[in-house]
Amino acid sequence: MNIIVTGGAGFIGSNFVFHMLNKYPDYRIVCLDCLTYAGNLSTLEPVMDNPNFRFVKESITDREAVYKLFEEEHPDMVVNFAAESHVDRSIENPEVFLDTNIKGTAVLMDACRKYGIKRYHQVSTDEVYGDLPLDRPDLFFTEETPIHTSSPYSSSKAGADLLVLAYHRTYGLPVTISRCSNNYGPYHFPEKLIPLMIANALNDKPLPVYGEGLNVRDWLYVEDHCKAIDLIIHNGRVGEVYNVGGHNEKTNIEIVKIICKELGKPESLITHVEDRKGHDMRYAIDPTKIHNELGWLPETKFEDGIKKTIQWYLDNKEWWETIISGEYQNYYEKMYANREEI
Ligand code: NAD
Ligand code: TYD
């Protein structure tokens, strides 16, 4: 089996590359990633010499480069993680989200049509369903929940999902889609809530919680997401969407307090800052379909996963310190300097 994994130098993609090379020693994994600010080649260092692995630095929006890669590799499957993934950046500058997340997806699927493929898998997000109200804990996102997006990021992911389903219906492309809740774990880029709070707390810097911090996210350990995708690409039904989530809802403020406690840092580091525009209140996944059809269940409890994650950031300071000492400084200044403390 030859699988092209796009976005494999990012957070979830790299964890998926490791999972697949480890579990399927006879598979060839080709990572296609153009190394944006979020892609990091040093993350893939441990597998660079693996004869079953190849890294290709190209963009999924570059049709010529993508077609050339298909001619060289004749992939059996494509798993598309490549995306602009940060909501706050999408609020500042939506355009690149449309290019990568929508047009890039179309280019990949055109290549699949042209050269043939056993499976095209789109890694999507629960954010395509919009949000749920805080006072209705009985409500969850199912695969039938209408698409109803809030941010340019989630809209671009929803656009891509619709295109994937259209390629299935119109051209018969054998597709699957997974819509997962918020992931956490090793190699998570430090602009996102959990790694940002860990890095700031370790540096005794303020912990910027948007608004009151009562927004709820449904956290899943990244390895459990990788296992779900592994199941879907092998056993999932073509043309289907599978929601992935582990019933682990927490408010942002709870998460930040847990991180303070685990690191022995004072909660006085927490600062409430101006809220995100259009901020989604609550995400919560109903994973019944993937459980019933494919037997998937999350394996890592949050209490264990967050400890493992914090330990990883303590053991791999060089990885994130290199990131936050570079261009990231400018980003942080720009994004947080203007957020008034409230
Ligand atoms: P990430 O930002 O950490 O990594 C994205 C990767 O894609 C980077 O390596 C980047 O270099 C690469 N990339 C970006 N544009 C590219 C392009 N034009 N061509 C080739 N490569 C490109 O993202 P992540 O958090 O690992 O998310 C991966 C996927 O999972 C995304 O599609 C995201 O929408 C989805 N997702 C993420 C979460 C989450 O909690 N992080 C949850 C559900 C779904
Ligand atoms: P994030 O990790 O950006 O993921 P997403 O927006 O895709 O869910 O943010 C998770 C939650 O944390 C979200 O409600 C916004 C909030 N948040 C903060 O309060 N402060 C921060 O500095 C960041 C990055 C996020």
UniProtKB/TrEMBL annotation:
<dbReference type="InterPro" id="IPR005888">
    <property type="entry name" value="dTDP_Gluc_deHydtase"/>
</dbReference>
<keyword id="KW-0456">Lyase</keyword>
<dbReference type="Pfam" id="PF16363">
    <property type="entry name" value="GDP_Man_Dehyd"/>
</dbReference>
<dbReference type="InterPro" id="IPR036291">
    <property type="entry name" value="NAD(P)-bd_dom_sf"/>
</dbReference>
<dbReference type="GO" id="GO:0008460">
    <property type="term" value="F:dTDP-glucose 4,6-dehydratase activity"/>
</dbReference>
<protein>
    <recommendedName>
        <fullName>dTDP-glucose 4,6-dehydratase</fullName>
        <ecNumber>4.2.1.46</ecNumber>
    </recommendedName>
</protein>
<keyword id="KW-0520">NAD</keyword>
<dbReference type="InterPro" id="IPR016040">
    <property type="entry name" value="NAD(P)-bd_dom"/>
</dbReference>
<comment type="similarity">
    <text>Belongs to the NAD(P)-dependent epimerase/dehydratase family. dTDP-glucose dehydratase subfamily.</text>
</comment>
<feature type="domain" description="NAD(P)-binding">
    <location>
        <begin position="4"/>
        <end position="309"/>
    </location>
</feature>
